[in-house]
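Below is our example:

___
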Amino acid sequence: MTDWCCYFVGYCIQESGYETKDFGFAPGTIMWTNNLKELGKLKSADNYTPQVGNLIFFDYGGRSHYKATGNVDHIGIVVEVKDNSVTVIAGNEYNGQTSNWATVSYVNKYILQLNDDSIACYGAVGSAIEKGLANVCLLYTSPSPRDPKTSR
């Protein structure tokens, strides 16, 4: 098995016609957030309102764990921001969790509240690029979002 959430996002970036290096691409989530930090494009979930096309990173230990360690577990793409929620598309999921250990995983679309503790940070690289990215990744999902109350 492989942790392919990063590769799914990288593929969507390439299909959007952009260079993955402009997004700080890395084959692992921790390296990816480090690259975005060096590029000045990493935004804290505590004080940033995400935009369509932002990269979204998760730490399933919660924001306090992320602040203490800098570790993230998963990446997706923001495809909608509405009221106090964010719609995300991510690869390498099974039953609402990252699925490094699962025999089957897929691309999933789901809605989370902006204050969801698992949202660690965002990668913000530019709205025009990001809207194209969000449109491309929408092609790879089913239309029904998962219920965030039962997703972890």
In short: The chain has four helices and seven strands. The radius of gyration is 14 Å.
